[in-house]
Amino acid sequence: MLKKEPEFIPSPDSLKNWLQQPPDSPIKVPPAIYDSCFRSKVNTNFLNKIFVSTPNASIKLWIEFINGIVTLLQPSFTEDSYHPLWQQAIYIPIKLGCPDGAYNRNSSYNTSTRQLRPDFSFLVSNACLFRGEEKAPSNAEDPANELTSKLIWIYGECPYIFGYYAVGFMVTFCYLQKGRDSIERIDLKTCNLEKLDGRIEAFLIGRNIGRLLPLLRKTIPDSLQEFTIIHRDNGKIVELMQNVVIKRYKSAELVGHIVNLYDKMKSHHIPFIDSLIKVKIEEQSVPFVILSPKGIHYKPQSEKQLVMALHCVLTAVEAFHELNIMHRDIRWENLMKYTDKDRWFIIDFDEACDSPSSVPYMQLDRRSHAPEIFSGNHDKSVDIWSIGHLILETSIKSELLTEYAERSLMLKDSKKRSTAKEALEWLCNRYKDILQTEFLISKY
User: Fold this and answer.
1) 263 and 386 part of one domain
2) Model-level pTM?
3) In a shared domain, residues 58 and 93
4) Number of domains in the chain
5) pLDDT tens readout for residues 335-351
6) What b-and-e string marks burial along 264-295, b requiring 16 or more CB atoms within 10 Å of the CB?
7) Domain named Protein kinase: which ranges (predicted)?
8) Helix intervals (H) in 128-279
9) Tens digit of pLDDT for each residue in 58-79?
10) Which residue(s) pair with 27 in the sheet?
């Protein structure tokens, strides 16, 4: 009952009233608790729409979701001291309405990364549809402005998402929508969490927002992924922001290696790769880099898309192979699609190095990498093998591409494999109609 998904998405004009509506049936509360916590403390007409006194009430429901309404926490003067209060009054009701959602709290004290995500984010299938900015009363910064300044609209046709801004006990719920030139914030209701009435109002609004979030998620592409943290086996931590990626590493040496590679490729204008936009290496802190764009994981769904993806990959590989750089880990997991066009780019140059190399690389998956990479001497032809494997890994049936992958790209004798330049030539000749239209190809 309390998490029942609505049948439709309310219009923006009706949101204020819709969010404040009580449950279809009042929530059952044990009589002793009802009498001690609510009776004589809240207007009866308002109270009876939300709670009802009954002996068969669920103690579990009370403890997990409602007890925080009547328990007033007393923060000190710091923002951190208000977190338990905001957690009880905002997150718990949202979770009641949307139990499958997950939340993150921004714990970064680094200015350059803190500005990339909201103080509070609630994710539904990896999409942040409810966000919050929070400040202690002593902080002069404006959390309402941060709600829009940190937000990039990546939600397609979704009519709106939700937000709140909190200054101490005062919390204002709002919705955010894409305007003609900027993100618009429309305030809905301000609740005073110092008062019981205010905490009950926040409970109603939070629960109703939670119920609506799964329906809003259906209006957004499944591929959207933001504010997700991925822990790799090698100790690397990857944080997906709205339009950039933060990678944190265990050693400054590895970051230095990556910076050198990206600087070299940038100076030669290598296309269809991500770009390094910030590097941070300081003593007593975890080194990190910020890369852009983020893109989405998306395997081609048609032969046309596969041809365009291969063109992007081969164009990039041809260019960095001329610099004697080999990627060594080309697979669909390391290819991203731009969100607004059928173009792909290569990411994750962590394992890249100069070609040739005499050092085996045992951490890679033998099923998706050239066999010689595990035995020692290998060169940039390992990338060609991996491009052939890309073709075989798709669900697209193309005899022409499959045959070329097996007979030219994935040969056991690495010296007989096509080069990136030769493979790109072949692709442009065989699929001239597609590539001339999409890429204005004229050189082949």
Assistant:
1) yes
2) 0.85
3) yes
4) 2
5) 999 988 999 999 999 99
6) ebeeeebebbbebeeebbeeeebbbbbbebbb
7) 156-444
8) 143-149, 196-217, 252-267
9) 888 888 888 888 888 889 889 9
10) 51
